[in-house]
């Protein structure tokens, strides 16, 4: 397979870490010195982490969709847990919602029989066909209809079958849902609307079953965009989205539906929105990711520690907008370096927003440093974007 | 009949150098053509419909038979290759719907235009590409019609605009192609196809309005195979009279399992458009034997009995074959020979599709923009660079 000359995810991670190290050498700023010397001693030569040319052994390996799901430690705080994969965690969250809230309805294409990813299995039998029903094939109609339900106060949980198909509904989301509260002076709102959609690459999806459109929606105030990394996170975040009084879009990494298995509490619980999670503490560099890429970054951090002696702090952003600026900035102040990695295309991807905000806020937050160049070198918010 | 067979067997046993087919033909007189009665189409806002009788020549009959059989076997071969994991990704097969693609092609000219959704392998063939190119595209090889980069859903040919993944999105495109036809003034029409599921998309109604307003030579065709993925038409549509959904656009409902019915209806619709009367809507009532795609077994939302019933009573290839044999347009043996030839062609194509190399990695970034000079595209990380040539 000629595509085998593409780097594996492992090498990408290594390369990413190397680039940061490479820039450290160039800048030579005060704080970097200790690290530079350590890395030079480690025998890091320029280009040793460069991709090798066409490895024939890599013929059948997944290159661009490689990851290993790493479950979190079981949570003791929310009562009895059960082994669930991502789609089962979603079903559990929806089950809890429909049980608690008599106005909650679930609708979308093929949700009645259980959904193409089994996320709504059993719900129609349990709650009735009035509450779990199919729509025709019309995304704009689905979301518009959902906004209408939400405006009357009922809880609308709409499913868009693949995030790639959300674009006919883009106008409804951006122009209707996001601005309802504002334009009516808080008289009306569609806060009880949640849109769920499978998201992200799956390996064989091609153009129209693999997209990550979070950046398109990040540009729109008035909605929230949330992306979980695991079943435990998914259930808590989805329940938060449903309860949140703002229209939310919940993207579910489809490659994790079956691949991610964890112990998930059976009872409902929430994970706060707009709070990023530091899932691993470190001192040398901050790595930010969301969704499936968090697991790639975890592997990268492990390799960086083993091969380069670099200590990485990993942050799962969780909510894309409104995003947790404080957690990320605090981390960057501590480590001095930032690497953001996402599946979506590089240009205009959400990493650019994060990086420009961090750069800007770093200069403003530290009152001692008045000059831009001075700030930049001393604090060295060293930014690198990695894109999957 | 028995006398004929006896004669044939005598000749065959005696034949030395002559190939069997020529011997058969020589020993039997076929009719040149035959007239058939076809089902009357339901009409919407039309005074008259297509004719209820049609003439099928032997030559045309053999051609249609061969084409339908080729599409059938090609789809079944694709099924096989998919299960062997030689074809990956998505694969939507159209076996059962052969009368639609072959019948539509029979009713139009090669200079007319056609656009459809993702169940497009049959149309790719009838619009002129070879089975080799189609199967090689499915397996993602250089010899494929989109150079291996498109796959099942993105096949294109001259005057065939694909091959489109997003449901319903191709319909406004079709209206646009029809506008170009009108503008160019060459008397061409555009066939714009979509399915029963897509018929509920808003943009289709937008396209209806534009086409009717501007009298575009657009034939909207709803290929109603009764199921939009797993949803039956009754559960998806308030009105399952898809031929009436164009409202102000005249429509006709056609038996999509009968190739002659499809051909006559297409001729009628094309004449309607070419005369400047504006768009027309055709609903082809057809059926697919496979599930929605290769990941759908196709039996969770319909019974095996239903599939079996359609296969035994309405199979388009069987219907044509019976007609031809019963009216002395061809013999069973002759058609069997065509089957054998088709099988061989498909086997060869599958061999090619399996053995052909994949497109070179360097081409991964080609044709993103039209650009001169070529520019660089970043890959999944900053060291991977592709040149984008276009």
UniProtKB/TrEMBL annotation, chain A:
<feature type="domain" description="Transketolase-like pyrimidine-binding">
    <location>
        <begin position="84"/>
        <end position="259"/>
    </location>
</feature>
<keyword id="KW-0560">Oxidoreductase</keyword>
<protein>
    <recommendedName>
        <fullName>3-methyl-2-oxobutanoate dehydrogenase (2-methylpropanoyl-transferring)</fullName>
        <ecNumber>1.2.4.4</ecNumber>
    </recommendedName>
</protein>
<dbReference type="InterPro" id="IPR033248">
    <property type="entry name" value="Transketolase_C"/>
</dbReference>
<dbReference type="InterPro" id="IPR005475">
    <property type="entry name" value="Transketolase-like_Pyr-bd"/>
</dbReference>
<dbReference type="GO" id="GO:0007584">
    <property type="term" value="P:response to nutrient"/>
</dbReference>
<dbReference type="Pfam" id="PF02779">
    <property type="entry name" value="Transket_pyr"/>
</dbReference>
<dbReference type="InterPro" id="IPR029061">
    <property type="entry name" value="THDP-binding"/>
</dbReference>
<dbReference type="Pfam" id="PF02780">
    <property type="entry name" value="Transketolase_C"/>
</dbReference>
<dbReference type="InterPro" id="IPR009014">
    <property type="entry name" value="Transketo_C/PFOR_II"/>
</dbReference>
<dbReference type="GO" id="GO:0003863">
    <property type="term" value="F:branched-chain 2-oxo acid dehydrogenase activity"/>
</dbReference>
<dbReference type="GO" id="GO:0009083">
    <property type="term" value="P:branched-chain amino acid catabolic process"/>
</dbReference>
UniProtKB/TrEMBL annotation, chain B:
<keyword id="KW-0119">Carbohydrate metabolism</keyword>
<dbReference type="InterPro" id="IPR001017">
    <property type="entry name" value="DH_E1"/>
</dbReference>
<dbReference type="GO" id="GO:0006086">
    <property type="term" value="P:pyruvate decarboxylation to acetyl-CoA"/>
</dbReference>
<dbReference type="Pfam" id="PF00676">
    <property type="entry name" value="E1_dh"/>
</dbReference>
<comment type="subunit">
    <text>Heterotetramer of two PDHA1 and two PDHB subunits. The heterotetramer interacts with DLAT, and is part of the multimeric pyruvate dehydrogenase complex that contains multiple copies of pyruvate dehydrogenase (E1), dihydrolipoamide acetyltransferase (DLAT, E2) and lipoamide dehydrogenase (DLD, E3). These subunits are bound to an inner core composed of about 48 DLAT and 12 PDHX molecules.</text>
</comment>
<keyword id="KW-0479">Metal-binding</keyword>
<keyword id="KW-0496">Mitochondrion</keyword>
<dbReference type="InterPro" id="IPR029061">
    <property type="entry name" value="THDP-binding"/>
</dbReference>
<protein>
    <recommendedName>
        <fullName>Pyruvate dehydrogenase E1 component subunit alpha</fullName>
        <ecNumber>1.2.4.1</ecNumber>
    </recommendedName>
</protein>
<keyword id="KW-0786">Thiamine pyrophosphate</keyword>
<dbReference type="GO" id="GO:1990204">
    <property type="term" value="C:oxidoreductase complex"/>
</dbReference>
<keyword id="KW-0670">Pyruvate</keyword>
<keyword id="KW-0460">Magnesium</keyword>
<dbReference type="GO" id="GO:0004739">
    <property type="term" value="F:pyruvate dehydrogenase (acetyl-transferring) activity"/>
</dbReference>
<dbReference type="GO" id="GO:0006099">
    <property type="term" value="P:tricarboxylic acid cycle"/>
</dbReference>
<dbReference type="InterPro" id="IPR050642">
    <property type="entry name" value="PDH_E1_Alpha_Subunit"/>
</dbReference>
<keyword id="KW-0313">Glucose metabolism</keyword>
<dbReference type="GO" id="GO:0005759">
    <property type="term" value="C:mitochondrial matrix"/>
</dbReference>
<feature type="domain" description="Dehydrogenase E1 component">
    <location>
        <begin position="67"/>
        <end position="361"/>
    </location>
</feature>
<keyword id="KW-0809">Transit peptide</keyword>
<keyword id="KW-0597">Phosphoprotein</keyword>
<dbReference type="GO" id="GO:0006006">
    <property type="term" value="P:glucose metabolic process"/>
</dbReference>
């Amino acid at each position: 397979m000629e595509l085998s000359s593409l780097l594996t995810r492992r090498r990408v991670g290594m390369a990413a870490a190397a680039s940061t190290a490479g820039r450290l050498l160039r800048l030579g700023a005060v704080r970097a010195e200790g690290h530079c010397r350590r890395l030079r001693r480690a025998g890091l030569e320029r280009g040793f982490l460069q991709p090798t040319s066409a490895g024939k052994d890599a013929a059948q390996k997944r290159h661009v969709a490689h990851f290993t799901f790493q479950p979190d430690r079981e949570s003791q705080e929310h009562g009895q847990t059960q082994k669930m994969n991502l789609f089962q965690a979603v079903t559990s969250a929806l089950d809890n919602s429909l049980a608690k809230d008599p106005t909650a309805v679930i609708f979308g294409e093929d949700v009645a029989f259980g959904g193409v990813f089994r996320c709504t299995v059993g719900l129609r039998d349990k709650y009735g066909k009035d509450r779990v029903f199919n729509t025709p094939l019309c995304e704009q109609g689905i979301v518009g209809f959902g906004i209408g339900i939400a405006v009357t106060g009922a809880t609308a949980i709409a499913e868009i079958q693949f995030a790639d198909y959300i674009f006919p509904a883009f106008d409804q989301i951006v122009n209707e849902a996001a601005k309802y509260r504002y334009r009516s002076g808080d008289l009306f709102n569609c806060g009880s609307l949640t849109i769920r959609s499978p998201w992200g690459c799956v390996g064989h999806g091609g153009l129209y079953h693999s997209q990550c459109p979070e950046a398109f929606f990040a540009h729109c105030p008035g909605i929230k965009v949330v992306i979980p990394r695991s079943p435990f996170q998914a259930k808590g975040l989805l329940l938060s989205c449903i309860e949140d009084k703002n229209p939310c879009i919940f993207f579910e990494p489809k490659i994790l539906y079956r691949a991610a298995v964890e112990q998930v509490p059976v009872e409902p619980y929430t994970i706060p929105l707009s709070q990023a999670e530091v899932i691993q503490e470190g001192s040398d560099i901050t790595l930010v990711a969301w969704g499936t890429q968090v697991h790639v970054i975890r592997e990268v951090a492990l390799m960086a520690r083993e091969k380069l002696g670099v200590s990485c702090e990993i942050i799962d952003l969780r909510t894309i907008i409104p995003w947790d600026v404080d957690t990320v900035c605090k981390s960057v102040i501590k480590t001095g370096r930032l690497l953001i990695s996402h599946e979506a295309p590089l240009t205009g991807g959400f990493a650019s927003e994060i990086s420009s905000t961090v750069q800007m806020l770093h200069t403003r937050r530290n009152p001692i440093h008045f000059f831009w160049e001075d700030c930049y070198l001393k604090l060295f918010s060293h930014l690198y974007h990695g894109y999957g | 009949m028995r006398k004929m067979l006896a004669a044939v067997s005598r000749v065959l046993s005696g034949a030395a150098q002559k190939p069997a087919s020529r011997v058969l033909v020589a020993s039997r007189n076929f009719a040149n053509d035959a007239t058939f009665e076809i089902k009357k189409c339901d009409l919407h806002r039309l005074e008259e419909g297509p004719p209820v009788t049609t003439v099928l020549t032997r030559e045309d009959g053999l051609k249609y038979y061969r084409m339908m059989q080729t599409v059938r076997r090609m789809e079944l071969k694709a099924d096989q290759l998919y299960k062997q994991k030689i074809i990956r990704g998505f694969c939507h097969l159209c076996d059962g719907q052969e009368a639609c693609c072959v019948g539509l092609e029979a009713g139009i000219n090669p200079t007319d235009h056609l656009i459809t959704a993702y169940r497009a392998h049959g149309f790719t063939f009838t619009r002129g590409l070879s089975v080799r190119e189609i199967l090689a595209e499915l397996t993602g090889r250089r010899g494929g019609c989109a150079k291996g980069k498109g796959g099942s859903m993105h096949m294109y040919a001259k005057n065939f605009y694909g091959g489109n993944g997003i449901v319903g999105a191709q319909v406004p495109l079709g209206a646009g192609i029809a506008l170009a036809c009108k503008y160019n003034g060459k008397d061409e029409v555009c066939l714009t196809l979509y399915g029963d599921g897509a018929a509920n998309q808003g943009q289709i109604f937008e396209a209806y309005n534009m086409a009717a307003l501007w009298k575009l030579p657009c034939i909207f065709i709803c290929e109603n195979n009764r199921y939009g993925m797993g949803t039956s038409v009754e559960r998806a549509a308030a009105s399952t009279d898809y031929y009436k959904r164009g409202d102000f656009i005249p429509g006709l409902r056609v038996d999509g399992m009968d190739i002659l019915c499809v051909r006559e209806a297409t001729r009628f619709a094309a004449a309607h458009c070419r005369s400047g009367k504006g768009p027309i809507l055709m609903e082809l009532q057809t059926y697919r034997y496979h599930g929605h795609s290769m990941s759908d077994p196709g039996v969770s939302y319909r019974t095996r009995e239903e599939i079996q019933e359609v296969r035994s009573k309405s199979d388009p290839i069987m219907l044509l074959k019976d007609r031809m044999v019963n009216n002395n347009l061809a013999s069973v043996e002759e058609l069997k020979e065509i089957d054998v030839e088709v099988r061989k062609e498909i086997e060869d194509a599958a061999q090619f599709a399996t053995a052909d190399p994949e497109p070179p990695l360097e081409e991964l970034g080609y044709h993103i923009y039209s650009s001169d000079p070529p520019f660089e595209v970043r890959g999944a990380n900053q060291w991977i660079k592709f040149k984008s040539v276009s």
